[in-house]
Amino acid sequence: MGARANINPPGGRNKMHHHPNNFLSAVYYLQTPEAEAEDRILFEDPRPQASVMMPRVVQFNRHNGNVLTFKVRPGRLVMFPAWLKHSVPPNNSQRERISIACNLMFKNFVEESSPALWEGTVTLDPSAHSSTEKRS
Questions:
Q1: Which domain range does residue 85 map to?
Q2: Contact of 13 with 91, CB cutoff 8 Å
Q3: 27: β partners
Q4: 65 in a domain, yes or no?
Q5: Is residue 129 situated within a structural domain?
Q6: CATH at residue 16
Q7: Phi/psi at 48 (nearest 5 deg)?
Q8: What contacts 133, CB < 8 A, 6 or more positions away?
Q9: pLDDT by residue (tens digit) across 15-69?
Q10: 123 lies in a domain?
Q11: Is beta strand 2-8 parallel, antiparallel or unpaired with respect to 14-17?
């Protein structure tokens, strides 16, 4: 697990991103701006085709939109799959937004939990790449 502190000063934001090579991500909020509109994290549908052929919508809501806005406040923990795109809007208040973000990945995940569904034909012999090997 890796963790880091995020401090968004006035004007600071986190642009849309995801966390590759991780299984789960989380954000714990220590301090959020006073302004009602500032205390949120946005999650975006990662499927590019989701907005290509959409039926006409009268009013977007959490059931028919491609972006979900989730309110945050001090003491709230938000957990989500690491592949899910997310962002934090600009901090338009004079108070810093402070959070701790972390990512979780299982030890030896590929080897133990999710082995490849194919078998390769190339094997690497570590001794073939030895720097002490004499070459002719």
A1: 2-50+60-116
A2: yes
A3: 78, 101
A4: yes
A5: no
A6: 2.60.120.620
A7: -60, -30
A8: 127
A9: 999 888 888 999 999 999 876 556 889 999 888 787 777 778 888 777 777 888 8
A10: no
A11: unpaired
